[in-house]
Each structure stands twice: as structure tokens, then as C-alpha cells.
Description:
Elements: H1 15-23, E1 26-31, H2 34-37, H3 50-53, H4 56-59, H5 62-67, H6 69-84, H7 90-98, E2 104-109, H8 115-118, E3 125-126, E4 129-136, E5 142-144, E6 163-167, H9 176-188, E7 191-195, H10 206-213, E8 217-221, E9 234-236, H11 240-257
Parallel strand pairs: 1-2, 1-7, 2-3, 7-8, 8-9
Antiparallel strand pairs: 4-5, 4-6
Residues 32-34, 37-38, 43-46, 49, 56, 60, 110, 128, 168, 170, 196-198, 200-201, 221-224, 226, 239-241 line the site of 2'-O-acetyl adenosine-5-diphosphoribose (OAD).
Amino acid sequence: MTGPFTPGSGSMISPTLEDVLARARHVAVLTGAGVSAESGVPTFRSAGGLWEKYDPQQLATYEAFSQDPDLVWSWYSWRRETIRGVEPNPGHYALAEAASLFERFSLITQNVDNLHRRAGNPEVHELHGNIERLRCIDCGTFFHGDEAPPSKQAQRCKCGGLIRPDVVWFGEMLPANELQFAQQAAANCDLFLSVGTAAMVYPAAMLPLTARQHGAYVVEINPEPSALAHEMDECIAGASGAVLPVLIDTARRHRSMT
Ligand code: OAD
Ligand code: ZN
């Protein structure tokens, strides 16, 4: 592992990464809560993160929802309102630009917050669902977040079934098609960026390892080392909103030269 390259101490893009950015045909990116931190969306595990204040077992499991649907409903309503009140940050916009820079660009996220889409990314692969989508636990009808009043009481479908957020809770399977896409992208890319994730939740945390096993150059962007920092080719110690625009700018300069 080389680095870490600290922003402010000269160039944060190493010569090796610059070379990879110039040549890469397929770039895959995995994002986590950290990419939205600069927009004002709380992360889960950083200092002051959601899992410091709240118990995931009481809020983000199917058992929790069946025992106290109103509590889980109101927590997700609060998060949905928070997310609606923020804007994408320069990290999201840099990734939206990256989509058109490389021959192939695969954006995979663990976030449910829609900020990649709102920043203009045409294709986002959501491993943990989307907070603006809800579904009936009985008949499977989907609803949009706009149809869900920010109430403290869990809402019911016409069929009488409870409506849940269409996100992946602990102990649940990830959407099979999105996971398969992500695994294939990790196995086929030339450059893999792991951005703003603590890399502690599987199977998402497998993706950088898969990429490395298949020969991609794997780079972490995070102000703190993640649980998998030692498995990376390179770690850039910085906030995604500061690092990603520089990285994409470097790629753009090389691409316009060729
Ligand atoms: P975490 O909250 O676990 O980790 C956020 C990471 O972002 C940490 O490693 C921070 O150091 C880093 N970070 C903080 N600010 C940053 C910034 N400005 N730029 C870049 N990085 C920054 O979030 P995830 O790894 O995404 O799942 O968590 C994965 C899953 O665990 C979530 O999808 C959620 C959670 O429980 C479910 O709810 C099922
Ligand atoms: Zn129903």
C-alpha cells in the first residue's frame, strides 16, 4: 500500500493513480454514507453517527418493524425529511461527471438517499434500496415517498398490510440483480474506488476485495482508514467532496489529451 496522500500536502493523486486514471476503460465506484456526510446526512458509524444514538436492532430489522411499526415508520420518516432538505455535494457532482468520462462507469451505492441521482448520475446501482420507495409487506404494492405522510403512525395499504420502506434491513437479502451487477463490475473493472464507507457491512464490503483479486487498482477515499484500508492499493485520506473533484479533474485532463 502506498500513501496516504493527505490533501494539502502537495498533490493528493499519486503518479500511479494518475497513470491508472489515464488508461482505465472501466471504473467502478462503491459509495457509503461518508459521501453524503458533507451534504449534512448523518453517517452510521463515524463519531456522532446514527448507530451511536440509535440501536439498529430496534430500527433496522424486520423484527423491530413487526414489534413496533410506528417507531420504525417515524424514524424513517424523519430520515426521509432530513434527506429531502439537503443537496448533493461536490463529491456527488464529480461522480456524475465521471459517468461520461470513461468507456464504462459503474456506480454502486450502499446509500438509500437518492443524492447520486439528484446530482445527475444516469445509472445508480442501489445495494440497500431507496428511502423514497415503500412497499406493502402483504401484497407487494410499491409506493413513492410522496405518498407517505411524515406521520408517527405506520401507514397501511388498501389491502390492510403494513407499508415498509423498501430498504435492506439487517438480516435481509440484498436485491439479487443489483448485487450480481456489483460483483461483475468489481471483477471486470480496471480501477475500483471505495468511497466514504467503513467497509464493515457485507456483502458490499467484499466488492473492493473482489476487484483486487481480479487485478483492478483499488483506492479508498476516506478521512479515516476503513476496516479494509490495509487491503487497498492506495488510500487517500480526505473528504470525498474535496478528493473526488480533483481525481475526476485529473482524469478529464488526461482524457482530453488523448
Ligand atoms: P458508515 O457510517 O459505517 O461509515 C461511513 C464512513 O464514511 C466512515 O468510514 C467515515 O470515516 C467516512 N466518512 C465520513 N465523512 C466522510 C467524508 N466527508 N468523505 C468520505 N468519507 C467520509 O457508513 P457505511 O459504510 O455506508 O446499512 O455503512 C454501511 C451500511 O451500514 C449502511 O448502508 C447501513 C449501515 O448500517 C443498513 O442500514 C442496512
Ligand atoms: Zn397491500
